[in-house]
């Protein structure tokens, strides 16, 4: 009886080792910043670089703040910096009182302030 019990425990412990393994690291896509089309430069001669649109944790909050200032339309508030405790958002105003302007806000631990 003891031998059978020892054998069962040994088989169970050996089988458990099959399930132990290193989990694969999570792969996250990296945003690639592409330079603007050749020839696009500001008045000082500096090349203009396009930043891809990315939403962030506080995008909806910044969009509400922009709407209160008269800025609406477009894609919404896009994250301009890396995600983290301090983030900067930018929103192009295509309609409303601020038409043609840019609304920018800084969010520190999800507490957003107009810049």
Can you walk through the features of this model?
It contains two helices and four strands; from the N terminus they run ααββββ. The longest helix is centred in the N-terminal third of the chain and has 18 residues, at 2-19. The mean pLDDT is 79. By secondary structure, it is α+β, with helices and mostly antiparallel strands. The chain has a four-stranded antiparallel sheet, covered by helices on one side. The protein is elongated.
The oligomeric state is single chain
**Major β-sheet strand ordering:** 1-2-3-4
Low-confidence stretches: none
Q: Could you tell me the strand content as a percent range? A: 15-25%
Radius of gyration: 26 Å
Structural class: alpha+beta
- The helix content is 10-25%
The separation of the N and C termini measures 77 Å
Number of helices: 2
Main β-sheet: number of strands, strand sense, barrel status? 4 strands, antiparallel
Encode the helix/strand succession as letters: HHEEEE
What's the β-strand tally?
4
If you average the pLDDT, what whole number results? Answer: 79
Overall geometry: elongated
Question: What's the layout of helices and strands?
Answer:
Elements: H1 2-19, H2 59-68, E1 78-79, E2 86-92, E3 102-108, E4 111-114
Antiparallel strand pairs: 1-2, 2-3, 3-4
